[in-house]
Design goal:
Blueprint (H helix, E strand, L loop, with lengths): L1 H9 L2 H7 L6 E2 L6 E2 L2 E3 L2 E5 L7 H16 L6 E5 L3 H10 L2 E6 L7 E2 L12 E6 L9 H11 E8 L4 E3 L3 E2 L11 E4 L3 H5 L4 E6 L11 E2 L10 E3 L2 E2 L2 E6 L1
Parallel strand pairs: 5-6, 5-8, 6-7, 8-9, 10-12
Antiparallel strand pairs: 1-2, 3-4, 9-17, 11-12, 13-17, 14-16, 15-16
Protein backbone atom coordinates (compact mmCIF):
# COMPACT_ATOMS: atom_id res chain seq x y z
CA UNK A 1 0.00 0.00 0.00
CA UNK A 2 2.75 2.46 0.92
CA UNK A 3 4.54 1.77 -2.39
CA UNK A 4 1.32 2.58 -4.28
CA UNK A 5 0.81 5.74 -2.24
CA UNK A 6 4.34 6.92 -3.06
CA UNK A 7 3.81 6.16 -6.75
CA UNK A 8 0.58 8.17 -6.84
CA UNK A 9 2.22 11.09 -5.04
CA UNK A 10 5.03 11.00 -7.59
CA UNK A 11 2.58 11.89 -10.36
CA UNK A 12 2.29 15.40 -8.94
CA UNK A 13 5.92 16.28 -9.73
CA UNK A 14 5.53 17.58 -13.32
CA UNK A 15 2.48 19.64 -12.35
CA UNK A 16 4.25 21.10 -9.33
CA UNK A 17 7.31 21.96 -11.42
CA UNK A 18 5.16 23.73 -14.02
CA UNK A 19 3.17 25.66 -11.43
CA UNK A 20 6.30 26.77 -9.54
CA UNK A 21 8.61 27.24 -12.53
CA UNK A 22 9.91 30.56 -11.15
CA UNK A 23 11.07 29.03 -7.84
CA UNK A 24 14.66 27.82 -7.31
CA UNK A 25 15.40 24.44 -8.93
CA UNK A 26 17.16 21.60 -7.11
CA UNK A 27 18.02 17.98 -7.89
CA UNK A 28 16.89 15.10 -5.71
CA UNK A 29 19.74 12.55 -5.62
CA UNK A 30 17.31 9.78 -4.66
CA UNK A 31 14.84 9.89 -7.57
CA UNK A 32 16.71 12.34 -9.88
CA UNK A 33 13.81 14.80 -10.02
CA UNK A 34 14.99 18.27 -11.07
CA UNK A 35 12.85 21.26 -10.23
CA UNK A 36 11.43 23.24 -7.31
CA UNK A 37 11.00 21.48 -3.97
CA UNK A 38 7.92 21.73 -1.76
CA UNK A 39 7.72 23.36 1.66
CA UNK A 40 7.23 21.19 4.75
CA UNK A 41 5.41 23.23 7.38
CA UNK A 42 7.70 26.27 7.84
CA UNK A 43 10.67 24.61 6.12
CA UNK A 44 11.29 26.06 2.67
CA UNK A 45 12.43 23.81 -0.20
CA UNK A 46 12.25 20.72 2.02
CA UNK A 47 10.34 18.00 0.19
CA UNK A 48 10.91 16.40 -3.20
CA UNK A 49 7.53 16.36 -5.00
CA UNK A 50 8.36 13.12 -6.81
CA UNK A 51 9.64 10.73 -4.11
CA UNK A 52 8.44 12.75 -1.12
CA UNK A 53 11.76 12.55 0.74
CA UNK A 54 13.07 15.37 2.91
CA UNK A 55 16.44 17.06 3.50
CA UNK A 56 17.69 14.40 5.92
CA UNK A 57 16.97 11.52 3.53
CA UNK A 58 18.75 13.26 0.66
CA UNK A 59 21.83 13.76 2.84
CA UNK A 60 21.72 10.18 4.12
CA UNK A 61 21.47 8.89 0.55
CA UNK A 62 24.52 10.86 -0.58
CA UNK A 63 26.60 9.75 2.42
CA UNK A 64 25.66 6.09 2.00
CA UNK A 65 26.11 6.19 -1.78
CA UNK A 66 29.69 7.35 -1.29
CA UNK A 67 30.26 4.60 1.29
CA UNK A 68 28.82 1.89 -0.98
CA UNK A 69 31.05 3.11 -3.84
CA UNK A 70 34.10 2.45 -1.65
CA UNK A 71 32.89 -0.70 0.15
CA UNK A 72 31.37 -3.71 -1.57
CA UNK A 73 28.25 -4.60 0.41
CA UNK A 74 26.85 -7.12 -2.09
CA UNK A 75 27.59 -9.98 0.31
CA UNK A 76 26.71 -8.03 3.46
CA UNK A 77 23.56 -8.07 5.60
CA UNK A 78 21.52 -5.00 6.56
CA UNK A 79 18.87 -4.42 9.21
CA UNK A 80 16.65 -1.49 8.21
CA UNK A 81 14.78 -0.04 11.20
CA UNK A 82 11.52 1.89 10.58
CA UNK A 83 12.14 1.53 6.84
CA UNK A 84 11.84 4.52 4.54
CA UNK A 85 10.13 3.53 1.30
CA UNK A 86 12.65 5.42 -0.84
CA UNK A 87 15.54 3.38 0.60
CA UNK A 88 13.98 -0.09 0.61
CA UNK A 89 14.43 -0.94 -3.06
CA UNK A 90 17.92 0.58 -3.10
CA UNK A 91 19.06 -1.36 -0.04
CA UNK A 92 17.68 -4.62 -1.46
CA UNK A 93 19.70 -4.03 -4.61
CA UNK A 94 22.93 -3.12 -2.79
CA UNK A 95 22.99 -5.71 0.01
CA UNK A 96 23.14 -9.47 -0.17
CA UNK A 97 20.63 -9.78 2.67
CA UNK A 98 17.99 -7.18 3.53
CA UNK A 99 15.83 -7.34 6.66
CA UNK A 100 13.33 -4.72 7.84
CA UNK A 101 11.83 -4.14 11.28
CA UNK A 102 9.57 -1.78 13.17
CA UNK A 103 7.74 -1.67 16.48
CA UNK A 104 4.23 -1.24 15.04
CA UNK A 105 4.15 -1.51 11.24
CA UNK A 106 2.98 -4.67 9.51
CA UNK A 107 4.86 -4.18 6.22
CA UNK A 108 8.17 -5.37 7.73
CA UNK A 109 9.99 -8.66 8.28
CA UNK A 110 10.05 -8.36 12.08
CA UNK A 111 8.22 -6.36 14.74
CA UNK A 112 10.13 -5.72 17.96
CA UNK A 113 11.37 -3.12 20.42
CA UNK A 114 14.95 -1.94 19.90
CA UNK A 115 15.44 -2.09 23.65
CA UNK A 116 15.07 -5.88 23.47
CA UNK A 117 16.01 -7.17 20.02
CA UNK A 118 15.09 -10.88 19.67
CA UNK A 119 18.01 -11.65 17.35
CA UNK A 120 21.32 -13.40 17.90
CA UNK A 121 24.59 -11.63 18.61
CA UNK A 122 26.59 -10.63 15.51
CA UNK A 123 23.63 -11.07 13.11
CA UNK A 124 24.18 -8.11 10.77
CA UNK A 125 26.96 -6.20 9.05
CA UNK A 126 25.05 -2.90 8.95
CA UNK A 127 22.14 -1.39 10.90
CA UNK A 128 20.39 1.71 9.57
CA UNK A 129 18.01 3.48 11.98
CA UNK A 130 17.16 7.07 11.09
CA UNK A 131 15.45 9.39 13.60
CA UNK A 132 14.50 6.45 15.82
CA UNK A 133 16.49 6.92 19.03
CA UNK A 134 14.38 9.86 20.24
CA UNK A 135 11.53 7.47 21.09
CA UNK A 136 12.69 4.49 23.23
CA UNK A 137 12.39 4.91 26.99
CA UNK A 138 15.97 3.66 27.38
CA UNK A 139 17.80 4.76 24.26
CA UNK A 140 21.19 3.71 25.66
CA UNK A 141 19.88 0.15 25.96
CA UNK A 142 18.69 0.37 22.35
CA UNK A 143 22.16 1.51 21.24
CA UNK A 144 23.70 -1.37 23.19
CA UNK A 145 21.32 -3.82 21.52
CA UNK A 146 22.20 -2.47 18.08
CA UNK A 147 25.88 -2.92 18.90
CA UNK A 148 25.23 -6.47 20.14
CA UNK A 149 23.67 -7.66 16.88
CA UNK A 150 26.45 -6.17 14.73
CA UNK A 151 29.22 -8.41 13.43
CA UNK A 152 32.91 -7.63 13.99
CA UNK A 153 33.79 -4.78 11.65
CA UNK A 154 30.12 -3.80 11.48
CA UNK A 155 28.57 -0.36 11.04
CA UNK A 156 25.58 1.39 12.61
CA UNK A 157 24.19 4.44 10.81
CA UNK A 158 22.15 6.26 13.46
CA UNK A 159 21.02 9.77 12.45
CA UNK A 160 19.13 11.79 15.04
CA UNK A 161 18.05 15.45 14.85
CA UNK A 162 20.60 17.53 16.76
CA UNK A 163 18.72 20.57 18.06
CA UNK A 164 20.53 21.57 21.27
CA UNK A 165 24.03 21.94 22.68
CA UNK A 166 23.05 19.48 25.42
CA UNK A 167 20.54 16.65 25.14
CA UNK A 168 17.14 17.38 26.69
CA UNK A 169 15.33 14.44 28.32
CA UNK A 170 11.56 14.78 28.68
CA UNK A 171 10.97 11.67 30.76
CA UNK A 172 7.46 10.94 29.51
CA UNK A 173 6.81 11.15 25.75
CA UNK A 174 6.06 14.62 24.43
CA UNK A 175 2.28 14.69 23.78
CA UNK A 176 2.62 16.22 20.31
CA UNK A 177 5.61 14.27 18.95
CA UNK A 178 5.85 11.20 21.23
CA UNK A 179 9.59 11.89 21.51
CA UNK A 180 11.27 11.27 24.86
CA UNK A 181 14.31 13.42 24.12
CA UNK A 182 15.89 15.98 21.80
CA UNK A 183 19.55 15.35 21.05
CA UNK A 184 22.39 17.74 21.70
CA UNK A 185 26.05 17.50 20.75
CA UNK A 186 26.72 15.45 23.88
CA UNK A 187 24.59 12.68 22.37
CA UNK A 188 27.68 11.46 20.52
CA UNK A 189 28.98 10.25 23.89
CA UNK A 190 26.21 7.65 23.95
CA UNK A 191 27.49 6.25 20.66
CA UNK A 192 31.09 6.37 21.85
CA UNK A 193 30.21 4.15 24.82
CA UNK A 194 29.60 1.22 22.48
CA UNK A 195 31.50 1.92 19.28
CA UNK A 196 35.22 2.22 18.63
CA UNK A 197 34.84 5.24 16.33
CA UNK A 198 32.12 7.70 15.34
CA UNK A 199 32.49 9.57 12.04
CA UNK A 200 30.31 12.59 11.28
CA UNK A 201 29.22 13.60 7.77
CA UNK A 202 27.97 17.20 7.54
CA UNK A 203 25.49 18.43 4.91
CA UNK A 204 27.65 21.51 4.31
CA UNK A 205 30.23 19.30 2.63
CA UNK A 206 27.84 18.15 -0.09
CA UNK A 207 26.57 19.96 -3.22
CA UNK A 208 24.03 22.72 -2.61
CA UNK A 209 22.06 21.61 -5.69
CA UNK A 210 20.50 18.86 -3.55
CA UNK A 211 19.15 21.32 -0.91
CA UNK A 212 20.31 19.54 2.22
CA UNK A 213 20.08 22.42 4.70
CA UNK A 214 16.98 22.84 6.87
CA UNK A 215 15.05 26.08 7.24
CA UNK A 216 14.18 26.26 10.94
CA UNK A 217 13.38 29.95 11.10
CA UNK A 218 14.34 31.91 14.20
CA UNK A 219 15.15 28.82 16.28
CA UNK A 220 17.96 27.86 13.87
CA UNK A 221 20.29 30.38 15.56
CA UNK A 222 20.25 28.33 18.77
CA UNK A 223 20.87 25.01 17.05
CA UNK A 224 24.36 23.42 17.12
CA UNK A 225 24.72 23.25 13.33
CA UNK A 226 23.44 26.77 12.60
CA UNK A 227 24.52 28.14 9.22
CA UNK A 228 22.87 31.54 8.71
CA UNK A 229 19.56 33.38 8.25
CA UNK A 230 17.29 30.67 9.64
CA UNK A 231 19.13 27.77 8.03
CA UNK A 232 20.85 24.92 9.85
CA UNK A 233 22.86 21.94 8.69
CA UNK A 234 22.30 18.25 9.38
CA UNK A 235 24.74 15.41 10.00
CA UNK A 236 24.89 11.63 9.62
CA UNK A 237 26.84 9.66 12.26
CA UNK A 238 28.57 6.44 11.19
CA UNK A 239 29.30 4.29 14.24
CA UNK A 240 31.98 1.65 13.67
CA UNK A 241 32.28 -1.52 15.75
Amino acid sequence: MKTLEYAIKGLRAPFYRRKHKNDPFFTCPICRYHGPFMAKNQRLHAKCPRCGELERARLQFLVMRDYFAQHDVSSKSLLHVAPENAFRKWFRKEFGQYTSCDLFRKDVDHRFDLQNIPLADASFDVVFASHVLMYPEDDVKAIAEIRRILKPGGLAILPVPFVHEKTVEFGAPDPSTQMRREAGLDYYQRFEQYFSRVEIFDARNYPAEHQLLTNNGAKAASMPYFVKDGWSSDVVPFCYV
